[in-house]
């Protein structure tokens, strides 16, 4: 009888032990944001209408048609007059950059934002276990992560990763690396550093598909401090719920729609093709198909299935128009049933508008992305965190709220993730001192007022007035 009881107890104890082990391990596999710091360059790097005119005027390879194209692009971009450019632009050397220009641009950001976020969190650089740096268009030796490690004298066993060529969606790729490392190691601190180097990537030619990037991209970046230490969860700002990455690099059209290359005259630039919107839509739809079941409540998923079945039945009976696209967007999913806030990459006004229409968002939902684009421009992989900071500065983020981040990048990629707000937030980050001025009464771009005369010029006689004052 005792033997029988022993044989019965042992399996039960084994089951309880396995359950305890699983719960214990899962507790340390969470990913929390303790703090983050967006970068705000000094005012002497601010790009106003007058300065833009100076830059355009000294671009000797542009003709009247290119000027008209740039005017139209800038006016419709959604970008205001308080964005920032690298110092090389103000020195008039953008067409002849040096490696040290790109490195100094990054170091200025590194030492400002990293220092602030570590100091505010009360974390020593020697406590950092994992460092992930993503700067797509600058590779240096020693690496950028090594420069950070050297400056802050981090431990010799710190694990470091440098990501290049990942484009505007790189910060969520960096986040995915940190999340996976956290699954294998307990009680760790990670530092995610996301930015883009513009100093060495100004396009000096006249190819329209490549000069467009000069109009859209601006300086910026963010340093994010993360941990999987469950004991610190009450100090955290956000908890990562899920992350989905979609990569369409196997499709030639998607691969080539957003690519760094030389033009016909050998000038390096960033080519944005006409197939970019189509490639972005495909990646976006596929990404949503994967993340939707992870973020929406069961009742909304059941409603979605029912609506889809009815549409298919009507289509078979011929009572619905043929060729109606299927998928989570067109089938009428209510994403706001599982998400309170939408953090959208500021790739441009058309990107924000497109996502807004696809997800059925209101102007209130799109305001953080629109205002970030207006104030800071497209800061590449760092843009998501400026949008998040705007929500925080407006005191929108309450405990328990969920924030969906959506980003796009060359490759072509669409990455998304869902955060849960751990505590009420409202510090403001880089928006703190100016949030009361947003949204402004008007977003009308002043460039047309300054340069509208170009539209009436004759290509055969056009010459830029030498005495024109900007």
From TrEMBL:
Residues 1-25 form the signal peptide. It catalyses: a very-long-chain acyl-CoA + malonyl-CoA + H(+) = a very-long-chain 3-oxoacyl-CoA + CO2 + CoA. It is an enzyme of class 2 (transferase). Residues 25-312 form the FAE domain. Pathway: Lipid metabolism; fatty acid biosynthesis. CDD domains: CHS_like. One of its GO terms (molecular function) is fatty acid elongase activity. InterPro entries: 3-ktacl-CoA_syn (IPR012392), ACP_syn_III_C (IPR013747), FAE1_typ3_polyketide_synth (IPR013601), Thiolase-like (IPR016039). The active site is at 168, 247, 341, 345, 374, 378. Gene3D superfamilies: 3.40.47.10. It comes from the Eukaryota. This is 3-ketoacyl-CoA synthase. It comes from Hibiscus trionum.
